[in-house]
Specification:
322 residues; alpha/beta; D-Maltodextrin-Binding Protein, domain 2; 6-stranded mixed beta sheet; 11 strands; globular
Length: 322
């Protein structure tokens, strides 16, 4: 056998496992990093989706809770250390692409991840405290225009999606509100009921207050009105060209095999139709917000552009990005 033939034969033999890898995937359990404490709403929904997707893939998907750095610690560690073989993936969301706009990080959200699929969004909304007479968002805007800066609103944290979303809405409405950040939904609920703030902006942590009639839900930020609160208008209903749901998606390290990405994408997309998954999502007021791999990656790029402008207006954009 000539040298060239031997070389071709050797290359062909070496190529077999490389080519068969994607076809055999998955051949062992998959680690799924959820960057939040166990027992929370995102954790519960992700566990339901992982269990459903594992049935399609034929291998267990093992949830590994790695909270920290506002939901970025786990995905960042994955991007830095794990192989792009599809056996370690992570739940990713707005904090992942927002934090690098505020401070320097050891990852680039546009270069260091393979975006697999976006699955859901969070039902955010605006509620009014019992001591106010606000029956609608129009009432808020009317009062705020006559009394700039006198109305306050609580959010579950500085530079969170509720905070930045409210700043976008206020700018479009031409009003000035005073932001009062807290650390969690229970704290914003307490502040609202205690009359320490006039409004609250949060995810569905306000659900028990609204359902009991103690507070008024003035608007939701989802693309459509919710089944639970059909009388609450969306931002689009109010004339604002905004849908703010905060992506709940899945990504892996950069450089993943497209065939492996496709298998993961298809399994988790199928999970969205699972009745058990839908029930869990409804329990925590998550809404389906499917985006394929390419669209999800484009969404991240566009969202960074949009939030960059808001963060710059608030004076918290990294100086080297201005």
């Amino acid at each position: 056998m000539k040298f060239g033939s031997r070389l071709l034969s050797t290359l062909a033999i070496c190529a077999v496992p490389l080519l068969s890898h994607a076809g055999d995937y998955p051949s062992k359990p998959i680690t799924f990093i959820v960057p939040w404490q166990a027992g929370g709403s995102i954790d519960a929904v992700m566990r339901a989706m992982a269990q459903s997707a594992s049935k399609t893939l034929g291998q267990p998907i093992v949830v590994d809770n790695k909270p920290g750095a506002g939901g970025t610690l786990g995905p960042a560690a994955m991007a830095a250390k794990e192989k792009p073989d599809g056996y370690t993936i992570a739940q990713v969301g707005a904090p992942l692409y927002r934090l690098p706009l505020i401070q320097k990080t050891n990852y680039d959200p546009e270069k260091d991840f393979t975006y697999i699929v976006n699955l859901a969004g969070i039902t955010f909304g605006i509620t009014a405290a019992p001591h106010t007479a606000f029956k609608s968002w129009a009432d808020v805007v009317d009062y705020a225009k006559k009394n700039p800066g006198k109305l306050s609103y609580a959010s579950p944290g500085q530079n969170t999606t509720p905070h930045l979303g409210m700043e976008q809405i206020s700018a479009l409405a031409g009003i000035q509100l005073t932001h009062v950040p807290f650390k969690s939904s229970p704290e914003t609920n307490t502040a609202l009921l205690g009359g320490h703030v006039d409004l609250q902006v949060d995810g569905a942590g306000f659900k028990p207050l609204v359902d009991s009639g103690r507070v008024k839900l003035l608007a939701v930020w989802t693309s459509q009105r919710t089944k639970r609160w059909p009388d609450a208008p969306t931002l689009k209903d109010l004339g604002y060209p905004l849908v703010i749901e905060s992506p709940i998606g899945i990504a892996g390290p950069k450089g993943m095999d497209p065939k492996v990405v496709s298998k993961l994408h298809d399994a988790f997309r199928a999970a969205l139709e699972d009745p058990d998954v839908r029930r869990t999502m409804a329990e925590f007021e998550f809404v389906p917000a499917y985006q394929g791999s390419e669209d999800f990656a484009k969404f991240v790029v566009q969202s960074r552009k949009d939030e960059k402008a808001v963060l710059n207006r608030l004076g918290v954009l990294r100086a080297d990005l201005k």
